[in-house]
Amino acid sequence: MTDWKERSLAHWGKINAAAMRRFGRGPLAEEAALAVIDGLEADDWQRVRAFQGRASFSSFIMTLTARLLEDFARKRFGRVRPPLWVQTFGGIWPKLFQALCLERLPVTEAVEVVHQRQTLAEKNAIETAAYQLLARIPDCGMARGLEVAYEEEELPAEIRGEAGPASSAETRERRELFQAIFQLVLKQENGEVGDAVLDKYRAFQITLSPEERLLLKLCYQDGLGVAEAGKMLDLTRFQAHGRMRRLLERLKAELSRTGLAEALRPLLAE
Amino acid sequence: MVTDPNHDRDKKVEKAAVLLALAADPEEAAGPCLIAEEMAALVDGRTTAAASAAHLAHFGSCRKCYEEWLFLKKETKLEIRRRVYALRRIKKFSYIGSALAVAASIAVYLNVGNMADKTLEQVVPDTALMEKHAVAPAPPRQALEYKEKDQGAGPVARNVAGSTAAPTAPTILKEQTTGRLEPLPASPTGTEQFRAQRAKRLAGPAQSEDMVAKEAESAPTEITAALAAPPGATDMAGWLVQLREACRADRHGAEFWAEMIDRGERLRLGGTTAPAEKQRLRITVLLALLREMRDPVLETRQCRLILAELAKDGETQ
Predict the structure, then answer these.
(1) What's the burial of A90, exposed, middle or buried (CB within 10 Å: 0-12/13-18/19+)?
(2) What percent of chain B has pLDDT over 90?
(3) Range with lowest mean pLDDT among A40-44, A108-112, A235-239, B121-125
(4) How far off is chain A from B93, nearest CA to CA, in Å?
(5) A93-143 pLDDT per residue, tens
(6) Of the candidates A131, A25, A64, A264, which has an alpha carbon nearest to the alpha carbon of residue B43?
(7) Which of A147, B39, B161, B273 has minimal Cβ neighbours within 10 Å of its Cβ?
(8) DSSP for residue B168
């Protein structure tokens, strides 16, 4: 008979390390690691008993650990949908949002935690991003004392980013997105876009396959190289570069078709 | 590194376009979220190609699963890096064996050199002692003084001529001049023969001339002259030479210095003629310096004074 407890606790070191990478080196990480053990032990090790041998037990435990750590974070700090621009930027930005606005960590600690989670990003870049995020979300971390489980419906409208009717919220979010792209990506001083540009953007329709979307996310959100991203998707470097090239050409064509490229050109010219 | 500003700008515009496309494309979940074991199998690479493609397609639209997949991939990569690092460390440790072997060889080599020095240093007094014991016990100082008064000759001279007194200077001188040690005879008869041969070698004109010619190139003038002088003076020169060399080597024990003092005393008591009086004075000064050499710490300082004393008349350089 398998001793699930013994098998699970044999991975205690890995669980602890994962908790520290997720929450930094502090009492919170220890608490999270203990919560993982509690989660594994629940209902007489029911989660662990589900193991059927299709993967290595170590990977299985780590998968459960990752899920239980996120459960712990959600229970402790609640869940808030980040603004559209934060979601779109991806990579370090949602993690910074989580660390600063939900877990309310000081900037230095948040930078450390995100650096642990997003090993590819440089610490200086994360720190700069943290201050940019705080500057763009003045309400970040304001809802203190909500250390209970809550869903996004219960959140104040300012944090949710839904101040008015759905359409105006959408317009506002898109305006924020353009502003963030101009200021943070293109490094333009003025990121204000007119309604004409937003109308053209509404007409912008591009359908990405899940695989294409994944390739773009890996390269442009998480900062992986095209070859490395291709490797994660079981593609050779030539296949990956070929796909990326074709994808960018399609994108360019769609921007031209909708007139969005023409509308943005004056804003890009300096 | 020089970067092309246009290239950088193109990259930024490209990224802006991609971000706009990602925001514009509605995320529609492709299939259900993965169960824990499916995710683990995907990370381990144990899924079929079709299942893998389906799972990856799901990640394109499910942020939660995508984040989890990235987290696990990074964990796996870190684990592999840790293992590789551990293996590298083991590989590094393998060099320690070789390094230790080399260090041990060097240590042995250095110690062998030191041991050779020590052996050479110890041979001189040991040989003298061996000779002493093989021939006869040294007479007490009072007896020597009595003989000096009676016969008017130094004990050293009598020793070289084959008497029972056994100072060790000739043996040492022989070692220093010839550069090698000769075995001492075991029987008294053999000892007599050996002494006779040695006295002949030291006192004989042909041998002395040869040695003087050799020594004249390097040795101080007084010592050179002493080598050609009568046997008593030769012992004196031998003592001075050994004293000088010992002080230069600067590595001797208390026993050695005691032996030197003993010999110096005997030489001092042996001289009666006018040059011997001059030598006696020198010996007295040197003995006074030697007697201060009780502490090994003082050895270097006293040796400097002795060398200075020896160099006064230009004997040493």
Answers:
(1) buried
(2) 3
(3) B121-125
(4) 25
(5) 999 998 899 888 889 989 988 888 876 778 889 999 999 999 988 888 775
(6) A64
(7) A147
(8) S
Average pLDDT over residues B129-136: 48
Percent of chain B at pLDDT above 70? 50
Q: Report the distance separating Cα B126 and Cα B128, nearest Å.
A: 5
Count, residues in chain B: 317
Annotate A163-213 with three-state secondary structure: CCCHHHHHHHHHHHHHHHHHHHHCCCCCCCCCHHHHHHHHHCCCCCCHHHH
Q: How far is CA A192 from the centre of its chain?
A: 25
User: What are the Cα distances from residue B145, in Å, to B163, B164, B264, B266?
Assistant: 15, 15, 14, 9
Q: How far apart are CA A47 and CA A36, in angstroms?
A: 11
pTM attached to this predicted model: 0.55
- Mention every residue, 6+ apart, whose C-beta is less than 8 A from residue A93: A82, A86, A129, A133
Which residues are CB-contacts of A156 (< 8 A; sequence separation ≥ 6)? A143
Interface contact flag, A248 B20, Cβ < 8 Å: no
Q: Is B154's pLDDT higher than 70?
A: no
Q: Which residues of A touch B66 (CB under 8 A)?
A: 214, 217
Chain A, chain B: beta-carbon pairs less than 8 Å apart:
143
For B93, the enclosing helix (H) or strand (E) is helix B63-135
Q: Does residue A46 contact residue B26 with C-beta atoms inside 8 Å? A: no
Helix, strand or coil, per DSSP, at residue A80: coil
Each residue's pLDDT tens digit, A7-38: 888 999 989 988 988 888 788 899 999 999 99
**CA triple A186-A188-A192, angle to 5 deg:** 110
pLDDT in tens, B11-23: 888 888 889 888 8
d(CA A201, CA B19): 12
A245: helix, strand or coil: helix
For residue B113, give Cα distances in angstroms to B108, B109, B118. Answer: 9, 6, 9
Q: Contact at 8 Å (CB) between B220 and B228?
A: no
Find tokens 């489980």 and name the residue: A149
Please report, to the nearest 10 degrees, the dihedral formed by the alpha carbons of residues A81, A82, A88, A94 taken in order: -110
pLDDT tens column, B231-259: 455 677 888 888 888 888 766 777 888 88
Amino acid at A151: E
DSSP sequence for B208-225: HHHHHHHHHHHS-HHHHH
CB-based contacts of B67, cutoff 8 Å, min separation 6: none
Minimum CA–CA partner of B8 in chain A:
A186
Chain B residues in contact with A18 by the CB 8 A cut-off are 75
Q: What is the pLDDT of residues A79-92, one digit of tens each?
A: 778 888 998 998 89
